[in-house]
């Protein structure tokens, strides 16, 4: 059953009674931060609260597993827009323990696609078009390694402005505890030597 009518009914009341007023802010992040994090449901409210962020403080980009899997994909584009156009000055890549992407089996996922009606010929066309579907859908084994890989891709991207700290962290999705994987400020100090 679709939740659309329930959402639209709630929204009508939300607007009518001006419940949006506490959330009014500008498009520019007050804390000048852009966060790349996972789409996990446990992080929707927990992550901002655990970082003392409120509406208007940060730009948040979500990707399954906080993975950057293409240097010229939507994730990098969003980060670059935040840095060049929306006045962000720092990047945080935040993954979490017990991530669903760590358990994704691309072969099983392709089987699920076929079971849900995606024609096998379409799967083959994608493969023959040069897309390694298995690799594209692959998850990761170790969240720390995955976060470091995304951080490295962002740090070394040819379009990244100089001097932008890119931090990597892993969160406990039950408690909100953040573990630092890599400090972007320290990296920049070492890089500048």
UniProtKB/TrEMBL annotation:
Its EC number is 4.2.1.1. One of its GO terms (molecular function) is zinc ion binding. It comes from the Bacteria. CDD domains: beta_CA_cladeD. It catalyses: hydrogencarbonate + H(+) = CO2 + H2O. Gene3D superfamilies: Carbonic anhydrase. Zn(2+) binds at residues 38, 40, 96, 99. Its cofactor is Zn(2+). Binds 1 zinc ion per subunit. The keyword Metal-binding applies. It is an enzyme of class 4 (lyase). Belongs to the beta-class carbonic anhydrase family. This is carbonic anhydrase. It comes from Ureibacillus massiliensis 4400831 = CIP 108448 = CCUG 49529. The lineage of its organism: Bacteria, Bacillati, Bacillota, Bacilli, Bacillales.
